[in-house]
Specification:
Largest interface: A-B, 19 and 26 residues
Number of strands of chain A: 0
CATH architecture of chain B: 3-Layer(aba) Sandwich
Order of helices and strands of chain B: EEEHEEHEHHHEHEHEEHH
Shape of chain A: globular
Strand content of chain A: under 5%
Order of helices and strands of chain A: HHHHHHHHHH
Radius of gyration of chain A: 23 Å
CATH superfamily of chain B: P-loop containing nucleotide triphosphate hydrolases
Structural class of chain B: alpha/beta
Oligomer: heterodimer
Number of helices of chain A: 10
Strand order of the largest sheet of chain B: 6-7-8-3-9-10
Largest sheet of chain A: none
Number of domains of chain B: 1
Number of strands of chain B: 10
Low-confidence stretches of chain A: none
Mean pLDDT of chain B: 92
CATH class of chain A: Mainly Alpha
Low-confidence stretches of chain B: none
Chain lengths: 246, 253
């Protein structure tokens, strides 16, 4: 009903069908057809960055979460470091982090040729989402009953083995849905690397729009993002449902 | 490493343990001889579970010593993991691993902690499961089993690594009354086989039947210690008498 209402509102709005109105500038079939292949080819960059960043995020998040939940007294400095990491990178807006790393790191002249903007953007996204995902993992680890750790240690497993074979498998299962939720968010935020220059789908669509004065290419980009995020969202739903049954 | 009386598999001398201001154990002297079963009785909150956890080094003690086969195990230099590999502990709440099947629960410790080959561990695991009436349940998840079955799996898991002694922490307290018998039968079976055990229990009839020695824990101290006949039938201390009278009135004796 809400969707129908919105559609009706848009379709009956004064700006919809007049000369140069929304129907023409946002929903032009010919403009869509022309722009789509180009936007799609650039969307592959989004997908690639997303996949690589996601793997890095899962690894980094796990490492930080394991450090924060460790009990070994000797790891105290590392625990502080992990806490600071989460506070800092979760606290800075992702877009700002992309800017700071994307423009700040090349300015350091650490390498003879500056690292690629795509790489730097990916690193910024990884740091930001790594901090979020670390907290998701940590919540999962903490939700596993203390008796599970006791039982694992009682059978002679080391702390590391107890984590690996007993606690972590249960923790990850419990947080699978929120983790996937962060996947969806990351997939969208990959568009932020465009502010550093790389032509991904959003940027490509913007360029065509700038040349043609028609906004339809942006809609094509939006559609491509939806094609990836909606299946992910359904997967979240399915996992969420399972979590309740078990 | 100091050595102590080697006839005792487990021995505690002057063990104290506090949680914050609360003194839970106030100087425990206790020993379990080879092939013997010592039943630890006492009201809820008297420190039975804490004592068990201290012996398995899941809690640090504040003072005193605990010995396993004559070797002190509560010294900071002792490898706690190695000590736990020589003991088996069964919990009141079973604490089976819900993401693993029955057989996986049983072999995890044998393979990862005891270093047994997986095939070997599985053969032994299956034998033990069959012996305790769990044949055919190897592939089930713990939540598909009754409480009594789960606790029997937990017992199998604890003995799979052939421990020197078995610690049983109120293993029937979480069970429906009709399921208590099957778990007690399993413990009786192990006792008959000569397994050394320290068991905390509320089942006085069972303690009388299976234990060689009964220790009454009251307010963090062992106030009475002796054969089941001495402690349960003719208690000398007023605290023991009161405790047993209350059980009798509650219909639990």
């Amino acid at each position: 009903m809400v969707v129908g209402g919105l559609a009706a509102l848009i379709l009956t709005s004064p700006g919809w069908s007049k000369e140069g109105g929304v129907r023409e500038t946002f929903f032009s079939w010919s403009a869509f057809k022309d722009a789509f292949p180009d936007v799609l080819s650039h969307f592959w960059l989004d997908v690639k960055v997303f996949m690589l960043a996601e793997i890095a995020v899962l690894a980094l998040g796990l490492l930080v979460a394991l450090t924060r939940t460790s009990r070994t007294p000797a790891l105290f400095p590392l625990r502080i470091l992990a806490t600071v990491f989460v506070d800092v990178f979760r606290g800075i807006p992702t877009i700002l982090l992309v800017y700071l790393i994307g423009f700040g790191v090349p300015a350091l002249y650490l390498t003879s040729t500056p690292p690629s903007a795509v790489l730097l953007g990916g690193v910024a996204l990884t740091l930001s989402y790594g901090a979020y995902v670390a907290e998701v993992y940590r919540a999962g680890i903490r939700s596993v009953h203390r008796g599970q750790r006791d039982a694992a240690l009682a059978m002679g497993l080391t702390e590391g083995q107890a984590m690996r074979f007993v606690i972590l498998p249960q923790a990850v299962r419990r947080v699978a849905a929120p983790l996937l939720n962060d996947f969806v968010a990351l997939q969208k935020d990959v568009a932020l690397i465009s502010i550093l220059g790389p032509q991904e789908a959003f940027r490509a669509a913007q360029i065509i729009q700038g040349e043609s004065f028609n906004y339809t290419p942006l809609l094509a980009a939006a559609l491509l993002f939806l094609l990836v995020t909606i299946p992910l969202a359904r997967l979240v739903d399915r996992l969420g449902g399972k979590g309740e049954v078990r | 490493m100091s050595t102590h009386n080697t006839h005792n598999v487990i021995e505690l001398t002057g063990v104290t343990k506090s949680f914050g201001d609360r003194e839970v154990l106030r100087g425990i002297d206790l020993w379990v001889r080879e092939h013997q079963a010592v039943a630890l009785i006492g009201a809820s909150g008297s420190g039975k579970s804490t004592l068990m956890r201290c012996v398995d080094l899941l809690e640090d003690i504040d003072d005193g010593d605990i010995f396993l086969d004559g070797d002190v195990i509560t010294d900071p230099s002792v490898d706690t993991v190695a000590v736990r590999r020589r003991l088996g502990l069964v919990f009141q709440a079973y604490n089976l691993f819900p993401h693993l099947t029955v057989i996986q629960n049983v072999v995890l410790g044998a393979v990862r902690a005891q270093g047994m080959k997986r095939d070997e561990a599985e053969v032994r695991g299956r034998e033990l499961l069959e012996r305790f009436g769990l044949a055919g349940r190897e592939g089930d998840r713990p939540d598909e089993l009754s409480g009594g079955q789960q606790q029997r799996v937990a017992i199998v898991r604890a003995i799979a690594g052939r421990p020197r002694a078995l610690l049983l922490d109120e293993v029937t307290s979480a069970l429906d009354p009709e399921l208590v018998g099957e778990v007690l039968a399993a413990v009786r079976d192990l006792k008959g086989e000569g397994v050394t055990m320290l068991l905390a229990t509320h089942e006085m009839t069972f303690a009388r039947e299976v234990a060689d020695t009964v220790a009454f824990l009251h307010d963090g101290r062992i106030v009475e210690f002796g054969s089941p006949e001495e402690v349960l039938a003719a208690p000398k201390r007023p605290e023991t008498q009161r405790f047993l009278r209350r059980l009798l009135e509650g219909g639990r004796l």
